[in-house]
Specification:
208 residues; mainly alpha; 7 helices; elongated
């Protein structure tokens, strides 16, 4: 008696979760499309910014902290933001004692944060797809027991469709993550290289 009530309760709970799971799967599809579009746009932006750009050659052209606006515009956006942050914080006396490392780490964190959405979708998409598969299969088995083959077939279609949608959104997010991961590593490497040059310039007197 008690076991039957618990089993019926769990079945009812799974059916309650059905609508949120399907709704979240639709959100995952929209997020995957949005991420793919954002990745394509970022690719075009990086291609435009980095066409002919060489960080070593840019650094050799003069002091980083004394670069004018025209020269700063030659830098990609993340590196330009790092130089501006360092320039703004340089006037603080405490900046000489670990301030540069803090600015660099803060900038790295902002760059790495762009991977959070795709990393989450890689895990959530297939998980929701599995939930969307198992929930209708319970209803399909109940329909099979009652001899309603049409209802069972309809539930099986839903089950397999949610699996495909969940795996597709997760796969798209994984591709986006791998592409952006390479970009993030490149940006972090350049930021650290630029920070090493800035660290050497901080010992120079500030020009009026």
């Amino acid at each position: 008696m008690v076991l039957g009530l618990l089993e019926n309760g769990l079945f009812a709970l799974s059916q309650v979760l059905r609508l949120p799971v399907i709704g979240l799967l639709c959100v995952c599809v929209a997020a995957a499309v949005f991420m793919a579009g954002g990745c394509a746009f970022e690719f075009l932006e990086r291609r435009r910014e980095r066409r002919g750009f060489n960080l070593s050659r840019w650094i050799d052209a003069g002091l980083v902290l004394e670069a004018d606006q025209t020269r700063l515009k030659e830098l990609p956006v993340p590196l330009r933001a790092l130089v501006r942050d360092v320039t703004a914080e340089r006037v603080k006396q405490s900046f000489q004692f670990g301030g540069l490392e803090h600015v660099v780490l803060e900038r790295e964190e902002q760059v790495r944060r762009t991977l959070s959405g795709s990393r989450l979708l890689v895990r959530v998409g297939p998980s929701l797809g599995l939930l969307g598969t198992l929930i209708p299969m319970g209803t399909a088995l109940a329909s099979l027991t009652a001899g309603n083959l049409d209802a069972m077939a309809a539930q099986m279609v839903v089950a397999f469709t949610t699996t495909i949608v969940g795996l597709a959104s997760g796969t798209a997010a994984f591709v986006v993550q791998m592409v952006r991961h390479g970009w993030v590593n490149e940006t972090v490497r350049e930021q650290r290289f630029l920070a090493e040059r800035i660290a050497g310039e901080l010992d120079l007197p500030i020009q009026a």
